[in-house]
Design goal:
binds zinc ion, 5 strands, two-stranded antiparallel sheet, 36% strand, 59 residues
Length: 59
């Protein structure tokens, strides 16, 4: 069973895997915006837009 959330940017339905964790960053499949998982609580799951980060992951 997946957790269904709504993209705060484009209102698309996004399905999160059950093992998704709070503060995990996911990407909206519709608009490509990176979203942070704020809260996971069944139907009360919240996403927020990820802060822009410098691409500085050592690659
Ligand atoms: Zn979106």
């Amino acid at each position: 069973m997946n957790i269904k959330v709504i993209c705060p940017v484009c209102d698309a339905d996004i399905l999160l895997n059950n093992d998704t964790k709070v503060s995990e960053v996911i990407k909206c499949t519709e608009c490509g915006t990176e979203l942070v998982v704020d809260k996971i609580d069944g139907t009360d799951t919240l996403l927020s837009i990820a802060p822009e980060v410098e691409e500085d992951w050592g690659e």
